[in-house]
Amino acid sequence: MIRSPQRIRPGALIALLCAAAVAALGAALGAGSSPAGPADLIDVLTGQAEPVTRDILLRLRLPRALAAFGTGASLALAGVFMQVLLRNPLADPYILGTSGGAAVAALLVMLFGAAGAAIDAAAFGGALASTLLVFAVARYHGNWSPGRLLLTGVVIAAGWGAIISLVIATAPEANLRGILFWLMGDFAFATRPWPTLVIAACTVVAGLALARSLNVLAVGDRQAALLGLRVRPVRAIVYILSALLTAFAVTTAGTVGFVGLVVPHLIRLVGGSDHRILIPSSALAGGTLLVIADLVARTVIAPRQLPVGAITAIIGVPLFLFLLGRTTTTED
């Protein structure tokens, strides 16, 4: 018999994750072609650093690290919400095709010359449409099950992947390398970290306000309705929040997979399933994980950079297969 990991007290878990986040951000600021130690970071904070050092840390590394943190937090939160909707620990924006729908919409408007808010709006529309499509197709012949939803999401994600391949095949060669890196996850051009950070922070606040309702919804729609929960409005809010988080994550860094799968599941193992703890813990852990993944991606074979999505996939694929086997065994 395999014993479950010992649960960590909520306060200790949040404190540990905050310390890990600060350490990861500090490492991201310090590592690079021009290493910066603790003394350099203190000099930057006190205004005594050299101009070159200040520019490297504040204009290059800090926005990238904050963008990675915001994106990781957003993807982890989207994973939490989708796992409530599906009542399945295998749900994830990447696996269910939400990231793919956002990427297709954003990529198409980018090729037509759009920028800024237009890309964000297109990605949100693509993410929301993909999520609704998964649920509509899964329920076409009657009531859906979590397994049916998961399978439908995988198929639709494959369809979005095919459309992306067609777009890449017809894209101008001058833009091809940038498109490929963006699709695989890239923070090299993430100069606007604040929108993603703000969305993630606001969603944590909204999620905490909904935490009790999410706890009830996680046991099933019928049981939640019997307990007096207005299921449809809560599900609609969760739909919108999931799509919004995924859209901002995609427009910031492209399609980064498996963060929404790995992080919430691990937090449940060590901290339990109460969404009052799960939501802030997942945001902190997701942000920290992606900061570390981006740090590895840009330093392991420096000066060349790896797509950060490849790093998260290396972590996520084995865990996904483990969870899939565990879920199948439980159902049998």
Walkthrough of the structure:
- The protein has 332 residues and is an all-alpha fold.
- Helices cover 76% and strands 0% of the residues.
- The protein is globular and about 65 Å long.
- The longest helix has 36 residues, at 51-86.
- The chain has one domain: ABC transporter involved in vitamin B12 uptake, BtuC, CATH 1.10.3470.10.
In short:
The chain has helices spanning 10-30, 38-46, 51-86, 98-111, 117-138, 146-170, 173-184, 194-209, 211-217, 221-226, 231-253, 259-271, 275-299, 308-331.
For the structure shown, list the relevant keywords.
mainly alpha, ABC transporter involved in vitamin B12 uptake, BtuC, 0% strand, globular
User: Could you tell me the mean pLDDT?
Assistant: 83
Helix fraction, binned, reads over 70%
CATH topology type: ABC transporter involved in vitamin B12 uptake, BtuC
Gross morphology: globular
Which residues sit in consecutive blocks of at least 5 with pLDDT less than 50?
none
What is the radius of gyration computed over CA atoms, rounded to a whole number of angstroms?
20 Å
CATH architecture: Orthogonal Bundle
Instruction: Give the ordered list of helices and strands.
Output: HHHHHHHHHHHHHH
The rounded distance between the terminal residues' Cα atoms is 18 Å
- The fraction of residues assigned to DSSP E strands is under 5%
Number of strands: 0
Number of spatially distinct domains: 1
The largest sheet is: none
Give the helix/strand class. mainly alpha
